[in-house]
Specification:
about 250 residues, alpha/beta, Spore Coat Polysaccharide Biosynthesis Protein SpsA, Chain A, 8-stranded mixed β-sheet, TIGR04283 family arsenosugar biosynthesis glycosyltransferase
């Protein structure tokens, strides 16, 4: 039987986390476990999680020694028991059949990993243009920067808000996320996983918070998204890129 472990890295996510956990309770089939790895939150994230455990016996809380999403997700993956790992951001929600979509996608042995189409939205608006650009970027970015992988391996460049999922065995075999990578950790992982098969962007939608666009504004946010992606593609240092991409909560 194929089971799915959901892994959520958190750091001061008291605003976004309650909605995400409510959505997880609606999933069918349900995950075998939900592992939240906290990077040292100073808000009410941990209190909220402990309260949620009363209604979610499958919810497990872990504490990371570092506030680095890549390291947090590796820690969760090591503890996971599911055949499939689903890496979910705290501000992103899945459709109620999202885990079935993952199982069906990975039933194809030629597919190594996948992600969804991310629809970026806030309480009162949907960011259609930004969402559309993020969709097409998943195709043109590998075509520009890794054309040999795009044409011959089926590479796609997916991001965390698209909910990356893969087989646990292949995740461990490729070494997982690079622990100290501060940004673009998903792209780095997918370049490792593509040796096992193609990367698929499935034709289903997940919803992600527009908090960066709300904070930075449309033009600045999209300029930063483009700039960071381009510099990563040409080999710019991830440590330097991190300075351009501040955390927004």
């Amino acid at each position: 039987m194929t089971t799915v472990s959901i892994i959520i890295p958190t750091l001061n996510e008291e605003k976004a986390l309650p909605r995400t956990l409510r959505q997880i309770r609606q999933l069918f089939p349900a995950p075998v476990e939900v592992i939240v790895v906290d990077g040292g939150s100073t808000d009410r994230t941990i209190q909220l999680l402990r309260a949620q455990q009363l209604n979610m016996p499958l919810l497990k809380i872990q504490h990371s020694q570092v506030a680095c999403r890549a390291a947090q997700m590796n820690q969760g993956a090591t503890a996971a028991t599911g055949n499939i790992l689903c890496f979910l951001h705290a501000d992103t929600t899945l459709p109620d059949d999202g885990l079935a979509v993952m199982q069906q996608t990975l039933a194809d042995p030629h597919t190594a990993a996948g992600g969804f189409i991310s629809l970026m939205r806030g309480p009162m608006r949907t960011r259609w243009l930004t969402s559309f650009h993020n969709y097409v970027k998943s195709y043109y970015a590998p075509l520009l920067f890794r054309p040999h992988l795009f044409f011959f391996k089926g590479a796609r460049l997916l991001f965390g808000d698209q909910v990356i999922f893969c087989r646990r065995a292949q995740f461990l075999a490729c070494g997982g996320y690079t622990d100290d990578l501060p940004i673009m950790e998903e792209a780095d992982l997918l370049l490792k996983l593509v040796r096992f098969g193609r990367i698929r962007q499935v034709n289903r939608v997940v919803e992600s918070s527009d908090r960066r666009v709300e904070k930075w504004g449309f033009w600045r946010a999209n300029a930063i998204f483009l700039y960071v992606g381009f510099l990563w593609g040409v080999g710019y240092s991830p440590e330097k890129l991190r300075r351009l991409y501040a955390d927004i909560r």
